[in-house]
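glucose-6-phosphate isomerase
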Amino acid sequence: MRVAEPRRCDVSVATGFLVNGDGHYRKTYRDLAGLYADAEAFAAILAEKADDVAYEVTSYTPGEKTSDLIMGVTRMEPGKVGREFFLTRGHIHAKGDRPEIYHTLSGRGIMQLESPGGEVRLVEMGPQQVCYVPPFWIHRSVNIGSQDLVMFFAYPADSGQDYGIIERSGGMRVRVMDNGKGGYVAEENPAWRERSPADVEAILGGGEMVA
Ligand SMILES: O=P(O)(O)OC[C@H]1O[C@](O)(CO)[C@@H](O)[C@@H]1O
Ligand SMILES: [Fe+2]
């Protein structure tokens, strides 16, 4: 068996890019339709900057196996839709037992986590703090600061992303909102629907998790 070549990439914290990677995608505000609670405020953002970049990901994918690690950098703009802070779409890994790490390089964020059973964890993320996202947690990042949120991430290359799990439950269970005092508050999402025990079991697939 031939061994893979090492790869050196550079992280540009200032631009929020992984330099010398092999992947790059952008999400515009138009791409984020349906994620936010305040439809009127979202329409106003679309009217102003529908095709501007809301967040972008530069990455390096060395292979496709469980034993390959995709690594990259996510850069997310600061801002709010109404009182709700800007966020990534969020997903669970299609292979749910795959974990992920996120290392915050700059900005202030929340790693918003939700277990299949509906438990919620909000992990505050500042520079040089690393969040371990265990297997089976739905995860999304939220920019609660006034600057770009820049995070390095790594996860097994065969993880995949399942976005439907959030859509099917009417969004994530809480929304991270401006508390009007320079901080955030988690508010219940009234549209959220609990997953059935059968759904939860299908997601966990006999795997183990703590929460
Ligand atoms: O894939 P989403 O939920 O739009 O969010 C993007 C973030 O998640 C990732 O897909 C990694 O799991 C990164 O590309 C980035 O940190
Ligand atoms: Fe992920």
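thats it. The helical segments are 39-49, 164-168, 197-204. The longest strand covers residues 53-60. bye
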